[in-house]
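Schema walk-through. Below, the input block comes first and the output block second. Nothing else is stored per chain. Lengths vary across the set, and this one has 152 residues.
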Amino acid sequence: MTAKSRRNERARDSESGFTAEERAAMKEAVRERRARSRAKPGDGERDVLAKIAAMEPSDRVMAQRLHAIMKAHAPGLIPRTWYGMPAYANPEGQVVCYFRDARKFKTRYATLGFSDEAHLDAGRLWPTEFALQELGPEEEAQIVALVRKAVS
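--- output ---
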């Protein structure tokens, strides 16, 4: 990419207010909504597993483990994609939590996030996103506790 094309890309970003990655995520969300209208049972999990398979190896390992945790500890959540990310929705279709790989928005860590549908309220201030660089037994135990609380 030349310096001029980089400047043009930045200019487009400043005109719309969104980065190229954000615009791509929004376009993906539109495709997901259209696909959901004609989806069959199980399509959401297939889509989630395809997104996980396309991730960088380090994020893929974490996403696979998170998927297993969700299936084991929150079986009522339905796998689906959300803005191109693996996500887990309640029976009403509202996303409760999602996994954003580091490459998605060019960050240095992956993120496990919870929406306002998650029951994580703790007083007047509580976290809704957690940075992940690696999943060990301690992190997995914390995630299991968060997921259980989120769906309680």
